[in-house]
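re: that chain from earlier
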Amino acid sequence: MPKYVVSATLKDPEWNNSTVIDGDVAEGVARLRQDVDGDILVNGSVQLVQTLMEHDLVDEYRLMVFPTILGAGKRLFGETGEAAALRLVDAKPAGETLILIYEPSAKDTGSA
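^ sequence. v structure.
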């Protein structure tokens, strides 16, 4: 399976089947979306997901909900005053977790 690493410092990844995306991340991912057939998954990078959200490059959110309460941590959706409307597509149990699959709702165009 090909891997794409977003990094400003890594030039030559040692991992098998890996390509570095550097420079303009939004442009690199937009080009990747055109070139790759199938899903592109982001694992564990809040900063990358936030960048992709800012550029409307997220088609689906797969959120794993764990039954644990923590008092702090990084927010996936950050500190934004802009509401992001999501539509629940599916919910699947996975052991003690729940996987919630959301799609961004169509943006309000102002028409009734």
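The chain has two domains: 1-44, 60-112.
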